């Protein structure tokens, strides 16, 4: 029997399918599995599997869809990637770069959102239902979500993003889509404003049910689950190549979803020694893991805009473990943080002795220098988010343990930053084809009422 899903803030457990459709729990909490399977005894059997087959094995204990349906969903989700191995590994000096950007929007979000789009369609067909998706994006989630659900008759998607705070190419990928079920809302604020509005709207149970609202943000457990797979896949290959018993990962992150997936893999028994959290100047996560300082600051605009976040929503899932999985304690902690902007480390149980997390950060100068140096030394071009990871990963590198750095986007998506670093443009045909396409977006205040009005006008009941 598959696991059940509980809210970090309490409530009755739900099935996987119900938790996926709901996205966010009615009490404002995030869904987490009530148990995490230990697959240590199965690792040897999984090592030689191709990506799709491994995805089936990793996901199966968590889902309630039949095995043949899961197989079809996985197969269709990854058939649209340009690489047969889906997430290839590239050696750059002593580091292994895991390229997660070979999907239709050239970002790691495709790996989860292609699967989630197909999963949503299956669940809605079974229930003869419709879904209105509300999302917040700092750049890549929006385009990947749009490409995952565009043209699907049972779904509409409303994507909020901070106007002027995503890269031009990220915005182009979203706004060049002309399907009638896609709505791009450029809010005059920060990503944290977008995320807070989405959580507030989804937290209004009556409004949510009236308009059949769901989420594709990384608050949706299915997003995290799909990302767990590539930790197993890459670790198996690097450990085999290096004849190693353990592996380290460095993960550029803003919302803590990608690195939280690595934490789940570690809990399942994958031999991860370190999970290095890499941030830019918006370093709230790095400060926490370096010295337990989790205090909200002003969002700084950088050349790695997908990480320009001060409130990492997925961090709540980790904090839930750190308060002994007690919803009342977690609710009190989050309510206090919402009002004060500070989380007290004294409120948390001591981390386990083998907690895999450590952290570091890179500023704009260090990020540009990393792009330049890696290109000069190895002829390899990093996007600015991946460069943050490589910079921090190099600082935590142990010569006796292989390190995998996650490359989260194709460099052509951030051409201006890359050109500043190496003096030349990087292009990709998928992106070049978008330049002359008409764009559709609505610029509006960063207001919950304004977003509700758009949903009211276009979502249907």
- What Rg do the Cα atoms give? 20 Å
CATH architecture of the domain at 89-106 and 222-428: 3-Layer(aba) Sandwich
Low-confidence stretches: none
What sort of overall outline do the alpha carbons produce when their principal axes are compared?
A: globular
Q: Kindly state the number of beta strands.
A: 16
Major sheet: arrangement of strands: 4-5-15-10-11-14
Percent range for helical residues? 40-55%
Q: How large a portion of the residues is in β-strands, by DSSP E?
A: 15-25%
Largest sheet entry: 6 strands, mixed
CATH topology of the domain at 89-106 and 222-428: Rossmann fold
Highest-level CATH class of the domain at 89-106 and 222-428: Alpha Beta
| Average of the residue pLDDT scores | 93
Count of separate DSSP helical elements: 19
- How far the N terminus sits from the C terminus, by CA atoms, comes to 34 Å
Structural class: alpha/beta
């Amino acid at each position: 029997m598959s696991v059940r899903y509980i809210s970090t803030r309490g409530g009755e457990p739900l099935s996987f399918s119900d938790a996926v459709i709901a996205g966010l729990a009615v009490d404002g909490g995030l869904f987490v599995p009530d148990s995490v399977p230990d697959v240590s005894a199965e690792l040897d059997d999984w090592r030689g599997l191709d990506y799709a087959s491994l995805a089936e094995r990793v996901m199966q204990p968590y889902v309630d869809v039949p095995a043949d349906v899961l197989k079809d969903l996985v197969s269709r989700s990854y058939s649209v990637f340009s690489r047969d191995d889906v997430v290839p590994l590239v050696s750059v000096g002593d580091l292994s770069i895991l390229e997660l950007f070979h999907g239709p929007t050239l970002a790691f979000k495709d790996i989860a959102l292609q699967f989630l789009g197909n999963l949503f369609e299956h669940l809605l067909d079974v229930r003869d239902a419709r879904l209105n998706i509300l999302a917040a994006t700092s750049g890549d989630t929006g385009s990947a979500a749009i490409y995952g659900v565009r043209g699907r008759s049972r779904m509409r998607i409303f994507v909020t993003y901070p106007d002027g705070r995503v890269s031009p190419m990220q915005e182009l990928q979203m706004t060049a889509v002309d399907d009638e079920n896609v709505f791009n809302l450029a809010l005059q604020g920060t990503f944290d404003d977008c995320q807070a509005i989405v959580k507030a709207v989804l937290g209004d149970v009556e409004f949510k049910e009236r308009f059949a609202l769901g989420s594709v943000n990384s608050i949706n457990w299915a997003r995290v689950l799909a990302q767990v797979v590539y930790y197993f896949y890459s670790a198996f290959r690097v450990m085999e190549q290096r004849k190693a018993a353990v592996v380290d990962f460095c993960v550029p992150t803003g919302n803590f979803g990608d690195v939280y997936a690595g934490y789940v893999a570690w809990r399942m028994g994958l031999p991860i020694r370190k999970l290095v959290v890499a941030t830019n100047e918006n370093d709230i996560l790095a400060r926490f893991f370096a010295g337990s300082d989790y205090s909200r600051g002003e969002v700084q605009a950088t050349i790695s805009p997908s990480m320009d976040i001060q409130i990492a929503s997925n961090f709540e899932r980790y904090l839930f473990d750190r308060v002994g999985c007690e919803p009342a304690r977690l609710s009190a902690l989050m309510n206090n943080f919402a009002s004060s902007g500070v989380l007290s480390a004294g409120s948390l149980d001591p981390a386990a002795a083998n907690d895999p997390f450590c952290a570091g950060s890179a500023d704009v100068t260090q990020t540009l220098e990393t792009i330049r140096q890696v290109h000069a030394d190895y002829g390899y071009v990093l996007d600015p988010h991946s460069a943050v990871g490589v910079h921090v990963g190099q600082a935590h590198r142990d010569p006796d343990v292989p390190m995998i750095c996650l490359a989260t986007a194709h460099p052509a998506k951030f051409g201006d930053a890359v050109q500043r670093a190496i003096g030349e443009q990087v292009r990709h045909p998928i992106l070049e084809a978008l330049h002359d396409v008409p764009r559709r977006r609505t610029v509006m205040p960063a207001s919950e009422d304004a977003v509700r009005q758009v949903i009211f006008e276009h979502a249907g009941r």
